[in-house]
Amino acid sequence: MKEHKEHMQEQTFGDYLREERESAGLTLRSLSKASGLAPSTLSRWENNHVDPARADVVKVDQGLRANGRVVSNWELLTSVRFPPWMRNVSRLEEVAHLIELISPLLVPGLLQSPLYAHEVFREGLHQGTPEEIGKLIALRTSRLERLRSSNNPLVTAVFPVTALTCVPDAVRSEQATRLLELSESDRISIHLVPEGTVLMGVVSHLLMFHLRDGGRAAVADHVDGATLYEDRKSYVRLEGLVKSALGSALPAKQSRKTLEELL
Description:
By secondary structure, the protein is of the alpha/beta class. It folds into 2 domains: 2-77, lambda repressor-like DNA-binding domains (434 Repressor (Amino-terminal Domain), Orthogonal Bundle), CATH 1.10.260.40; 84-261, Endonuclease, Chain A. The chain is built from 13 helices and 6 strands. Strands 3-2-1-4-5-6 form a 6-stranded mixed β-sheet, with helices on both faces. Strand 5 (216-222) and strand 6 form a beta hairpin. Helix 8 packs across helix 11. The protein is elongated.
């Protein structure tokens, strides 16, 4: 196992692709025919003369019938930088087909009701005027509806039930009502972490974006702003945290029952 890890660290994508092609018993010409890419292009990749684009790697993956294995290894073995637009959370929301929201403390911003959002801004000591804060609240609480009318992503949210029980009654009631309304959609899945259970390993709000082209992006939302995870090797760990959080939370139907009890 250790030798395999060291090999993966030293290996380039070109080396890996050559191994995959030869294991499949294909020549450059036959892989070219299967993928629709020129033999010269594939040769340049294998010799590490050119870094391929994701869309072309997908074609090779399909040509090798690798079921995503080639794309995954390309992500791990190359230091591809995210394009500028992917550094904007709002833009990521607009191109995602699935958004996973894991929050260790609060209801995720995308699902917040007006009173809850106001409470968050107030406790966060936001320095804006009441008018400015009002505009921010309006933007935050209308964001999901705008997304539902455009790309309409699937949304999976995991957060603790204490995110609701720690706020004043009026805030809790409005937020629980909002979440119940959202949970009626087959596009939104809400999972509450019961009291006494802690989301170990998740120290800040984690957002995982699954894009329509098969790409992924992960963002941590901190007090002073959002941070995009540049190191794709960390995505295995982050996706493990998402699965762990879902495993610690109540199923959607039980979460809905809990929300009804909070009204």
